[in-house]
Amino acid sequence: MKRKKLILIGGGGHCKSCIDVIEQNNQFDIMGILDHENLFGTDVLGYKVIGSDIDIPKYVNLSYSFMIAVGQIRSSTVRQRVFNELSKYNADIATIVSPRAYVSKHAVIGRGTIIMHNVIVNSSAIVGANCILNTGSNIEHDTVIGNHSHISTFAVINGDCKIGEGVFIGSNATISNNIHLGNNIVIGTGSVVVKNIKAQGVYVGNPALKLKI
Questions:
Q1: Would you say domain 4-94 falls under CATH 3.40.50.20?
Q2: Domain-by-domain residue ranges, the chain?
Q3: 18 — phi, psi (to 5°)?
């Protein structure tokens, strides 16, 4: 099968993790990275920064695919903006799955999502567009994850959960069975969620409570 030519958008730390997965995925040739002008000519793991967001139309016209390699900690705003920009040009936004991940044949994975090493996505789970399922995270049966969400390293989302859009779930956090989380919620590292959460905010602890900022 012919490998597709791929442009990465964002050249930070998350980009390095994406590159490692893409190289092992063996479906894409990385042609370069788009980032800020002051980074032009620099490289990330041997791949050059060759332009910025304004160059997206040029590479769309060349029929290149794209991967959003911008990370997400407190907000998905940048990832959403880039995703919408790519969609405006009808760009091919790649969905990438590590060969070291397990994704059930009965699961659904959205456009532009990346699934990192040692992730588990179990039967009848639905993962939205432009999500990050980071290293070692576990998405159990019948769980739905909204667009633009980031499930961080070794987080566990148990069965029948509904996770909103733009949600960040921190490393080693646990979401109990049948929990519903609203949009743009942040769950802190190691936190345990045992009740539904609707209001936006940062939630930490065991059980997870809203952090007063």
A1: yes
A2: 4-94, 97-202
A3: -60, -45
Which residue, 121, 142, 118, is CA-closest to 131? Answer: 121
- Mean pLDDT over 90-104 rounds to 98
Bridge partners, 170 (sequence order): none
E strand or H helix that includes residue 150: strand 150-151
User: Contact, 145 vs 157, CB < 8 A?
Assistant: yes
Structure token digits, residue 191: 């936190």
C-alpha span between 21 and 67 (Å, rounded): 12
**Element (H or E) spanning 56, and its range?**
helix 56-61
| CB burial of residue 133 (10 Å; 0-12, 13-18, 19+) | buried
User: Are 122 and 139 spatial neighbours (Cβ–Cβ below 8 Å)?
Assistant: yes
3-state secondary structure of 161: coil
pLDDT tens for each residue of 118-166: 999 999 999 999 999 999 999 999 999 999 999 999 999 999 999 999 9
Q: What is the model's pTM?
A: 0.95
Fold category of 97-202 in CATH? UDP N-Acetylglucosamine Acyltransferase; domain 1 (2.160.10)
The C-alpha atoms of residue 64 and residue 116 are separated, in whole angstroms, by 22
| CA distances in angstroms from 75 to 45, 78, 80, 131, 164, listed in the order given | 26, 8, 10, 12, 13
- C-alpha 146/C-alpha 119 separation (Å) is 17
- Burial class from Cβ neighbours inside 10 Å (0-12, 13-18, 19+) for residue 56 reads buried
